[in-house]
Structures are given as structure tokens and as C-alpha cells.
Amino acid sequence: MREAKFDRIVLMKLTVELTSAQAEMTATGAFVNTRTGQTHGSTKGSTWSEETVQALVRLRESIEADMERVHFADDRLSSPSPLKPGPTTGLGEYLKKDDKTDEVAQG
Q: Edge-to-edge, what's the strand order for the sheet holding 8-17?
């Protein structure tokens, strides 16, 4: 069997539909070589562990609280935290046209 040229799957896109009777979540991940920053393809997922489902519930509650903070005058809601940038290797460099990611790995 041939060895993979990637060593990590990095989440690139997450789509969540909460308006149907049963919530649906689909994720797209990229196969990334963390040493070179190259992306070698992508995959989709839609089957989740109980841990992930519970994390989605917490995320939903947190997002709703943030939205309420914007739209309701209520001192009980916490102030927002600044977003931190995502990973700086892989597809990001490719999309930015980083010269290193345009090279084709030999071997």
C-alpha cells in the first residue's frame, strides 16, 4: 500500500441546517501535509459522534447568546471575544498564491 502525502485533515467548511425536524451538519475537510503546507484533496463528512453533537448544541447556544447580545439591551450577556485566525498552512497558502504551494512535490 502506498503512503499518503498528507498527515492531517483540516476543517475547511461547515454547513449546519437547524430548521428541519432533525438538525443536519455537513463538513468539508482538506487533506493537508503540515510539513509542506500542501493540500492533497478533500473529503466530506456527515456522521458525528455524541461528543460532536453536544459541542454543536453548545455552539448553537453560544451563537444565539451572541445574537441576543446584539439585539437585546441586557447587561447579563457577556461581551464578545475577537475571532482568532484559522490555520496558516495548507489551502490558505494555495488560495493566496504562495510560491511554495505552487511547487509539485517530487517522489
A: 8-17, 24-32, 39-45
pLDDT tens digits, 7-34: 999 999 999 998 878 889 999 999 999 9
Query: Per residue in 76-98, pLDDT tens?
Result: 656 666 555 555 555 555 455 44
Establish if 22 belongs to a structural domain: yes
On whether residue 1 sits in a domain, the answer given is no
User: Is residue 79 assigned to a domain?
Assistant: no
Domain hosting residue 56, numbered range: 8-72+86-102
DSSP code string of 8-69: EEEEEEEEEE-SSSS-EEEEEEEEE-TTT--EEEEEEE----HHHHHHHHHHHHHHHHHHHH
Q: Has residue 80 been placed in a domain?
A: no
Which residues, in sequence order, are bridge partners of residue 83? Answer: none
The pTM assigned to this predicted structure is: 0.61
